[in-house]
Amino acid sequence: MRTLSSRHVLPPHDPFDLHAFQRTLCPVFGPGMSRPFTKKCGTAVQREFRPRFRGRVRDPGDGTQLSGGCVRRFRLTVQALAALTTTKNREFVHDDQVPALAVQVTGAGGKSFYVVKRHGPGKVVRRLGSLDELSIPKARMLAAQFVSSLALGEDPEPVVDQAPLTLRQALAEYIGYAREHLSSKTVKDYEAHVARHLNRWAGTRPLVHLRRKEVTALHQGLGQRCGRCAANRVLAFLRAALNRAIREHELDMPNPAAGVRFYREEARTRRLFPEELPAFFQALREEPNEDVREFLLLALYTGARKGNMLAMRWEDISFLRAVWTVPAGQSKNGHELQVVLSSHALELLEARRARVDSPFVFPGREGGRRPADPGKPRSGHMANPKVGWERVLGRAGLSGLRMHDLRRSLASFQIDTGTPLEVIQKTLGHESKATTEIYARLATGPVRASLEKATAAMLACGEAQEEDPQAA
Question: H helices then E strands: how many in the chain?
Fold first, then answer.
């Protein structure tokens, strides 16, 4: 029996028409061999020599044909492009008029024009634009110009096809971007998100393989294990990282995290109320650890954030001007922050400076807090005093109170004493007044005073009408 070798070239045929394919075997195997051979083995031969599709094309009904060969190629029309689908993550479909012109079809439904051309030892891939940006004639013209320039050696920056971007690489790129444009506190939070929740979950899979249902499952799992607020923070970071990766790498895919809904978060209203302060101060006086006691007192006096308090240095404090300067690299908004020190805060700091021999106001033991990265040195300052905080709350008999609530307590007492919101905004270092207005909801003193005035005015009007009915 004769075998089909690489010297035999089959004419173009419809890969979906078995009888037409059988008729092409006559010049190869002879007229007498066509029918019995194809009846027995035609399906296998057709499967061997049909175009090697990696997806699926629905026939748009306009006569579009697919030519034979190993490259998926057909006549580009508006109807045919609209009908293109694929079961893979992405696939290139080439034009039959300009072979280098291809349409990239993604599993998510994205479609863009590309130039795909073998050049030298590799393959050059250049994105031309989306189907909304370019018409088919315009894309063919640009592809032809690109091929001509490539043949003349005029292409300055050919884009060589390479391994697909992985999810882990996208997260690392965004953290690198954050180091240059965002605060160090934000960068530490992002690194913690990756180390605790995303590194193992991301694995080595390409970014284009990620689906929305996987992000939804991650968000729901974090909500159950770590709380809704933590799950929302991780989702916000993941969404931002994917947005930047899709934009910078020109990926034709939607953001898988964009359609995942955040958990609804309830704003905290917990604060130290006046009736709780005697027990709280008594518990602080009984605290055996002097560093914990003075740390919590200074946090209440200044309303500063815990991270800034831990990293406080003597060189940043001006006792003459009674101001503590938080460097821009440590502040939450990325700007230098001036914290005004009250007389009680200054007295505490002056007493502490006399006995602390360290660049830090609250130095740590054995070199300070251990960093998350073993390769980095210790911070040098005190670690989070959460154990001492729990001791103080236990002695005071208080529950539901967090260390950050000391900051909210100071702002609430400022509002109760009639301090304008602009002054409180300066005290807390808020960039937006809207953020400070959240604390105004906790103030009941001004509301009570206003109600007392309004009630007294109504009663006065009623009494005046009773005394002089004709005046009504």
Answer: 19, 10
